[in-house]
Amino acid sequence: MWFISVLIVVIFIYLILDTQKPSRYPPGPKWIPLIGNYMEYRKLYRKLGFTHLVWSKLSNEYGQLMGLRLGKDLLVIASGFEAVKEVLTREEFNARPDGFFFRLRAFGERYGLVFVDGEFFKEQKQFCMRHLKLLGLYNSSMEDRISFETNELVNNIKKHKGIIAIPEALQVSVINSLWAIVAGERFKTDDSRPKELMKHINLSFKLQDMSGGILNQMPIIRYIAPELSSFNKLKFVLNSLISFITELVEEHLKTASPYNNRDLIDAYINEMNKNSKDSTFSEKQLIILLLDLFLAGAETTTSTLGYALLYLIRFQEIQKKLQDEMERVIGRGKQPTLQDRARLKYMGAFLMELQRHANITPTTVSHRAKSDVEILGFDTTVLANLYSLHADKHHWGDPENFRPERFINSNGELIHDDWFLPFGLGKRKCMGENLAKASLFLFVTALLNEFTVTAVTNDKLPTLRAVDGATISPTPFECCFIPR
């Protein structure tokens, strides 16, 4: 009997202590034992529909640095320009969080580029950047590859006259821009493999958020509610993606030559063969590295292009101004090149406003405080709320309105606003920024050069309602491409 009494007292003390916040922790809602603020988060999420709107509401109440707890995870949301800039540029925040979800996707360990840090990350990133550059990611051959894909997309749209499904019609062309450099091949527009790959990539983004989600915060939930927590579905998607990439790597292992790198996979295999067994270069690391590259590159670019078409449909006067500028500056029927970007001012403003207003990545990937940092404490997960910058009423005036002119000054020059950070900032800034910018410009100008984009029917415009997830994506819609 005394044992049960002692156990009850111990449990009671534990539950009391579990409600205590760490010393100097940022202000935020009070939490309850075991699950922290999870119930409050879910209540707000059901009301607002988007994770970043939950963070913004709580930050408006508690301040630019707002602290809460979800399950076992301490989470701090940085909102506003000063707080976001500090989180993204200070060395102490360059680490990545660890946990069940982050290891679930990487053979139970820490591999890849997105969720690793320290010397491991530094060595792997330097290798990737060096070889992607050698393979043409930052020179004219990159433009040639993207332009080839834009032509293929245009021809495919012409061939399939009538109603076109977005983003499905864009997926193969977008993924090919990166696929040729990484895997040494491209998919044909009627190939079913990239469509299956993109289906899994899209679903993987919808099943999680940038904090790691409930599987990271309360891993035990996978045993209690494997379906409700999306554990089974996420595991299936990740296994499908990893199987696809593993097969690709195994094909390269059979044919790679030490004298010639056809692509990034060949270069990595040759680096593996040169290093000792305890180096950071391994087959598992290669597989998750490729997974990170495709997940990050394909989803965000496809979603942004989808939003571009959505806004062109809804704002026909903007579409007309873009086409008029191309004709005036470049010439009727002539496809713009990357050298023309500086001259197409309104196009530049449109693409920036597109990224600001659509907010494809409303928060950055999770950061981790790798040492005691003032009020945060060690091992706290930190999210930089980019939405708080892009939707700030005091800075933009009317952030809810889609208005490209806000990025053009009185002299007709583009404004490079410090509050505009779609690719992040600092050492963990998006590696694919140059490819993404080039792809957006070349795809949008190619489509506007050949077509006028319209709704299927004039009385029913596609919705602007987005789909939430690790990134924001447009609700799938249909449109018409009318030859000019």
UniProtKB/TrEMBL annotation:
GO biological process, one term: xenobiotic metabolic process
Keyword Amino-acid biosynthesis listed: no
A cellular component term, taken from the record's GO annotations: cytoplasm
PROSITE patterns: CYTOCHROME_P450 (PS00086)
Keywords: Heme, Iron, Metal-binding, Monooxygenase, Oxidoreductase
Molecular function terms from GO: heme binding; iron ion binding; oxidoreductase activity, acting on paired donors, with incorporation or reduction of molecular oxygen, reduced flavin or flavoprotein as one donor, and incorporation of one atom of oxygen; steroid hydroxylase activity
Binding-site residues, heme: C430
Essential cofactor(s): heme
Family matches, as InterPro entries: Cyt_P450, Cyt_P450_CS, Cyt_P450_E_grp-I, Cyt_P450_sf, Cytochrome_P450_fam2
Keyword Calcium: no
Similarity comment: Belongs to the cytochrome P450 family.
Protein name: Uncharacterized protein
